[in-house]
Write a structure and sequence with these properties.
Layout (H helix, E strand, L loop, with lengths): L1 H14 L12 H6 L1 H19 L4 H30 L4 H14 L3 H25 L1 H8 L4 E6 L2 E6 L8 E4 L9 E5 L2 E4 L1 H4 L5 E3 L4 E2 L4 E2 L4 E5 L7 H14 L3 H31 L4 H14 L3 H4 L3 H12 L3 E3 L2 H8 L1 E7 H5 E12 L5 H12 L5 H12 L9 E5 L3 E6 L2 E7 L12 H11 L3 E7 L2 E12 L3 H10 L3 E5 L4 H11 L3 E3 L4 H15 L1 E6 L5 H6 L2 E5 L4 H6 L2 E3 L6 H36 L4 H20 L10
Parallel strand pairs: 11-18, 11-20, 18-19, 20-21, 21-22
Antiparallel strand pairs: 1-2, 1-3, 3-9, 4-7, 4-9, 5-6, 5-8, 10-22, 12-17, 13-14, 14-15, 15-16, 16-17
Organism: Paenibacillus yonginensis
Main location: membrane
Keywords: ATP-binding, Cell membrane, Ion transport, Magnesium, Membrane, Metal-binding, Nucleotide-binding, Phosphoprotein, Translocase, Transmembrane, Transmembrane helix, Transport
Length: 652
């Protein structure tokens, strides 16, 4: 059992559960073992060796410096050359290599080697940052088993997961990872669904319950009927989504990349002019002009500016993915940061999605449980959600359903049935026609219940009303807290629903909703979202991803609800796998923090470049200081972006 608990904790930490504090630090040992980091460190050691050898052998010193150039600069030179050949464009890699070679050409071997070392170090750190942000994918991939135990004709055989097909029966033993989506055929166990929902608390599964590939079975064996092939599992879709998101490039990053090529050409042109015109304009020697030009080439390069955005965006996406919030692209992180209003679908999002009986009122002289028993017996064959709620309430109270002699469903209002020789009817309150004299007791009661946002059904025996039932789709316990957290962020909440105004206002009042839009068809929701965008700007729509698809598409950001909902994965920009709408505020807070970090990085990068360029022409800063200032700023903006990897899901 201890081994099973350790494995469950491992799954929780890697794929969605809250990570222990000491596990959220950047792994220094892994960083030092990274191939690019080893090359950078090797270049640094050769640079130091060359500096030491310069005191007694110039030839050995230069040889070591050349080796430092090769070890640290070869990959960057190759990347720059490929950009030049394939895209006919310049990038910062070529600028840095040119600056280092220029320094060496006038005898500043140590300065050039230092530039190569720090440039290689910052590049290795940026690559490592991207790799760290993609840990969500590698952690998930590690949870996907390669084989499954298939049961067929009384025999068991171990087969590759890729060979599983719909309706295959597999055995999942205690402590094993479930290899495919499916339904439990037999067995009872607790399943850790952290890799899917982001919650580490195991969920009890029994016959008929859905289970997902990549989740961890608990203490008992389960027989699972496979629902489809491996590539169609929810787990596979999640991996594909995270990969797609982390490969996507936001508009701001695309602008920076386009700007980089233009800027690099400008810097090269300015450097050439500086070399050629400085002796004439300022009276500098050729060596002095060339040296200042190399310093300018280093400090004016946009390395820090280029690294200002993607490490932060990738870190935000990765941090969210570990907590069950999947972004389909970094552009949605930026859009979410602009949120001014969040619009919720009512049913299944703010509410439980299943009506329950809240009130049972009977005429004087009638017995409540008997009327509920008869009503549930009449409804027992109906598939209507209200009928199922009445039957569920009778079962909850331990009432035995009676056999019915006749049953007829009347479209638009309810059912009729004959039970023990008596005619019973149950349906909408407006089903009652005519007057009942002293029996009009129910009119006031039903009016009060309807004003409270409840649906009222009347119970008739032999044509006379004897009781009434009130039902309502209850507000989810987390809804009020979710809306409160949005309010703390200065964000308004709206509710879009097809329900009548009275029901909508009652639900909205209980949840703390600011804006109520009722009586809407799916196409109406999309047009109302467009109106809200015109009024408020950034609008997020939260729905189940099926009938809310038009509204999800119309919003700045559409958030789909529900683990297991393929429609939610397809229709939304962001998928909330654990259905915990309280995490929406946390996601918005994370996006806002990401936006702040990107702005900080860009302002800092521009300020450093400006100061170093001004210092080069004003006081004449040495090349080593220019190298440290420029590449140091690049490292700092990368590390600043990586802070989002440790950002939790709290909305505060």
């Amino acid at each position: 059992m201890q081994a099973l608990e350790k494995r469950a904790l491992s799954v929780s930490e890697a794929a969605g559960g809250r990570e222990p504090r000491n596990k959220r630090k950047l792994p220094l040992a892994a960083m030092l073992r990274h191939p690019e980091m080893l090359q950078a460190l090797g270049s640094g050691l050769l640079m130091l060796a060359g500096w030491g050898a310069s005191h007694w052998s110039q030839l050995l010193s230069v040889t070591l410096y050349v080796a430092a150039y090769g070890v640290g600069g070869w990959m960057k030179a190759k990347e720059g050359a490929m950009t030049l050949i394939k895209e006919r464009d310049l990038d910062v890699n070529l600028l840095m290599i040119a600056a280092a070679l220029g320094a060496a050409s006038i005898g500043y071997w140590n300065e050039g080697a230092m530039l190569i070392f720090i440039f290689a170090l910052s590049g290795a750190l940026e690559t490592f940052a991207s790799d760290q942000s993609r840990k969500s994918i590698s952690s998930l991939m590690a949870l996907r088993p390669e084989k499954a135990l298939r049961v067929s004709g009384g025999r068991m055989e171990m087969v590759p997961v890729s060979e599983l097909a719909a309706e295959d029966l597999i055995l999942v033993r205690p402590g094993e990872i479930i290899p495919a989506d499916g339904a439990v055929q037999s067995g009872t166990s607790a399943v850790n669904q952290a890799s899917i929902t982001g919650e580490s608390i195991p969920v009890d599964k029994t016959a008929g319950d859905q289970v997902y590939a990549g989740t961890l079975n608990g203490e008992n064996a389960l027989y699972v009927e496979v629902s489809g092939p491996a590539e169609g599992t929810l787990f596979a879709k999640i991996i594909a989504l995270v990969e797609e998101a982390e490969e996507a490039v936001p508009a701001s990053q695309r602008f920076i990349e386009r700007f980089e090529g233009i800027y690099a050409k400008t810097v090269v042109a300015a450097t050439a002019l500086l070399i050629g015109l400085s002796p004439l304009l300022f009276g500098w020697t050729w060596n002095e002009s060339f040296y200042k030009a190399m310093v300018f080439l280093v400090v004016a390069s946009p390395c820090a500016l280029v690294a200002s955005i993607m490490p932060a965006m990738l870190s935000a996406i990765s941090s969210s993915a570990r907590r069950g919030i999947l972004f389909k692209g970094s552009v949605h992180v930026q859009n979410l940061a602009e949120t001014k209003l969040v619009a919720f679908d009512k049913t299944g999002t703010l509410t439980q999605g299943k009506p329950v009986v809240t009130d049972l009122i009977v005429k004087d002289g009638e017995e409540a449980n008997h009327l509920l028993q008869m009503a549930a017996s009449a409804e027992q064959l109906s598939a209507h959600p209200l009928a199922k709620a009445v039957v569920a309430e009778a079962v909850r109270r331990g009432l035995e359903l009676q056999p019915i002699a006749e049953m007829k469903s009347v479209a638009g209002w309810g059912v009729e049935a004959v039970i023990r020789g008596e005619a019973w009817k149950i349906g909408k309150a407006d089903f009652a026609s005519g007057t009942y004299g002293e029996q009009d007791w129910w009119i006031k009661q039903s009016g009060e219940l309807e004003r409270a946002g409840k649906t009222v059904s009347l119970i008739f025996r032999e044509g006379a009303p004897v009781g009434l039932l009130a039902l309502r789709d209850e507000v989810r316990p987390v809804a009020k807290a979710a809306i409160s957290h949005l309010h703390k962020l200065g964000i308004k909440a709206a509710m879009l629903t097809g329900d009548n105004e009275a029901t909508a206002k009652a639900i909205a009042s209980e949840a703390g909703i600011d804006i109520v839009l009722s009586g809407l068809l799916p196409q109406d929701k999309a047009s109302r979202i467009q109106q809200l965008r015109e009024q408020y700007g950034g609008v997020v729509m939260v729905g189940d991803g099926v009938n809310d698809a038009p509204a999800l598409a119309a919003a700045n950001v559409g958030i789909g609800m529900g683990a297991g909902s393929g429609a939610a994965l397809d229709a939304a920009d962001v998928v909330l796998m654990n259905e915990d709408i309280d995490r929406i505020a946390g996601a918005i807070s994370l996006a806002r923090r990401g936006r702040r970090i990107v702005k900080q990085n860009m302002v800092f990068a521009i300020a450093v470049i400006s100061l170093l360029v001004a210092g080069n022409f004003g006081v004449g800063i040495p090349l080593p200081l220019g190298v440290v200032g420029h590449e140091g700023s690049t490292i700092l903006v990368i590390l600043n972006g990586l802070r989002l990897l440790r950002y939790g899901s709290s909305p505060s």
